[in-house]
Amino acid sequence: MTKALSELTSMRVGGAPAEIFEAVTRDDLIEHALEVWRSGDDWLLLGGGTNMVVADDVSQLRVIKVATRGIEVQPPKNGKVLVRVQAGENWDDFVAHTVEQRLAGIEAMAGIPGTVGAGPVQNIGAYGQELSDVLVRVEFLDFATHEVAVLDAKDLAFGYRDSAIKRGRPGVITWVELELQDLDGLSRPLYSTQIAADLGVGMGDQVELAEVRNSVLKLRAQKGMVLDAADPDSVSCGSFFTNPIVSDRFARTLPSEAPRWENEDDDGLTVKLSAAWLIENAGIGKGFSLAGSKAAVSNKHALALTNRGGASAAEIVELARFIQERVANKFGITLVPEPNLIGF
């Protein structure tokens, strides 16, 4: 089976690869990955296709599409519940399932597109929660050794939208195990001012899980960050750049109105900045596009790049590089793309 990857990615760009193999069982996934690796061919692991921009010519690429399914919930112990999820499960569907089962821990990560297996690679997170908060272990087929191993959370060396896998340990995650909480249907304490304001409660309060999920979906939809066939601003791969982390000394050189958040892990020696603020204050507003291009900044959020219909992958990347140059020239900061750029 093969087709253009523009049909399988949320950015709707990407040429036709040499092969697309759909793995529906764990064993299929492992066996085919090993066969492709032994061949020496270029390869791509495809989940939901939501965190990547694929080049227009990938005719030599062999694609392994992860379509494994299954959720196993262990009996609760002292209010903690272990849940093992196969890599091909849709992330947002899984979040909805945990909310229905009254399990807390990932409710604020509703609406994030993609599959469960892709989540640990970039340590997905939103609205005060990160996957690393609840991840216990994963099963991992290592590209370097061709061996299957169970990796604990510490082995993945998580960082902000980062992990050891993303930093250069390629392979295949087959399942993910999380530790969630039974809080009688309530959420974890809220760490998002946006959710708290939307629900009219205070920071640190606990509310019904479904209320948190619904609030997050509403907030994300307002920014075009929920996949919706009727919303052209959602034809994207979500946030295109990570929020940069800089030294506190460097942050003090920026305008006082630039949003910033101190890193509590190092007592404020580093500071996270708003990539969206940097982009807009470098003169690139919502809806911006280069002359003649079908790629554009979202009309709803300056951090999302969108395909306005028929854009090429080259046009998406051209716009991204233009934004990087403008921000670097204005503020001395190089924005780092969040999605994987395949074939560039």
Automatic annotation (TrEMBL):
Is Hydrolase among the key words of this record? no
Q: Where in the cell is it found?
A: Cytoplasm
InterPro entries linked to this entry? FAD-bd_PCMH (IPR016166), FAD-bd_PCMH-like_sf (IPR036318), FAD-bd_PCMH_sub1 (IPR016167), FAD-bd_PCMH_sub2 (IPR016169), MurB (IPR003170), MurB_C (IPR011601), MurB_C_sf (IPR036635), Oxid_FAD_bind_N (IPR006094)
- What residue stretches are annotated with the FAD-binding PCMH-type domain? 13-183
List the molecular function annotations (GO) for this entry.
Answer: FAD binding; UDP-N-acetylmuramate dehydrogenase activity
Q: Any idea which UniProt keywords this protein has?
A: Cell cycle, Cell division, Cell shape, Cell wall biogenesis/degradation, Cytoplasm, FAD, Flavoprotein, NADP, Oxidoreductase, Peptidoglycan synthesis
UniProt pathway annotation: Cell wall biogenesis; peptidoglycan biosynthesis
Instruction: Quickly give the catalysed reaction.
Output: UDP-N-acetyl-alpha-D-muramate + NADP(+) = UDP-N-acetyl-3-O-(1-carboxyvinyl)-alpha-D-glucosamine + NADPH + H(+)
The Enzyme Commission number assigned here is 1.3.1.98
Q: Name one Pfam family in it.
A: FAD_binding_4
Listed under GO biological process in this entry are:
cell division; cell wall organization; peptidoglycan biosynthetic process; regulation of cell shape
Listed under GO cellular component are: cytosol
Q: What class of enzyme is it?
A: oxidoreductase
Q: Does the keyword rRNA-binding apply?
A: no
What positions does UniProt annotate as the active site of this protein?
161, 239, 338
Name its co-factor(s): FAD
Which purpose does this protein serve, as stated in its record?
Cell wall formation.
Query: Which NCBIfam families does the UniProt record give?
Result: murB, PRK13903.1
The family note in this entry says: Belongs to the MurB family.
Protein name, UniProt field: UDP-N-acetylenolpyruvoylglucosamine reductase
- Organism of provenance: Candidatus Rhodoluna planktonica
- The gene name reads murB
